[in-house]
Amino acid sequence: MSRLRLLSAAALLAVAANAHATSFIVTTDAVVGALKSSSDATSDASSSLRDNKIVRAARDDAASFVASNGDIRGVKLESAIDEIHRQLPQLNATDAQIAQAILAI
């Protein structure tokens, strides 16, 4: 193989490897940034709910709701669900998911 072809192939390989590594780094940075933003928002929301007296008072009702597969709906749980929907209008969760989240807080 001629020396010019060998140098051209090596240069092309170096450029391709550099472009691939750069796109990987940019993609990784974007994914990590998005996850961090989502995690920060979730953390802020859960910490504000954790400190909410209405939500904390609903733990027993949430446990009854989960244990009965939704048959037992206490007044405190209903109040907490309303409070959570008021604080987080963008939340798209079922009552069962909210009850489980209250138990996890």
TrEMBL record:
Keywords of this entry: ATP-binding, Helicase, Hydrolase, Nucleotide-binding, Signal
Signal peptide: 1-21
GO molecular function terms listed in the Swiss-Prot or TrEMBL record: helicase activity
Protein name as it appears in the record: Holliday junction resolvasome, helicase subunit
